[in-house]
Give the backbone structure.
Amino acid sequence: MSKPTGKLAFAYQTIAKMEERIEALLAERDRMAGALESCMDALWEDSREVRMDDTMMFGHGYDWDGWEIFRWELHTRAGSFAIWPAHGTYSAYGGNDGTYWNQCFVDAKEAKAAVVKHVARVDPEHPAAKAYALLEEYRAALQGEQP
């Protein structure tokens, strides 16, 4: 088979360059998604500002070490939220509506994700909510891609 020449050669070269550029853009997209996840995680802090309201009651012997020592907090216009370890799982509490997730999460990452998903509904302008929305779009686009 002879080597393509003229317009056909130009077309092959253009397609090859476009494929390279697409690969570079896909790698950049994945890098940006990782950066967004890191930014969302950086918004969590331990400011000790979250207080439980009077509707919260825990049984005698509740292990408060997780709440007192290891909690992470996220502050929004819809209230502040906290996650903490408890009995090998993670719990979350907060917001102006007093939302409580009792030992529902296997780790801090899952607990933070649930809180941010909730924040996206109640305070969509919060930076974590915006990052969450972009990551959801990214994940949905990945689901639609062909292998």
Q: What stands out?
A: The longest helix spans residues 6-42. The chain has four helices and four strands. The CA atoms of residues 78 and 95 lie 6 Å apart. The longest strand covers residues 79-86.
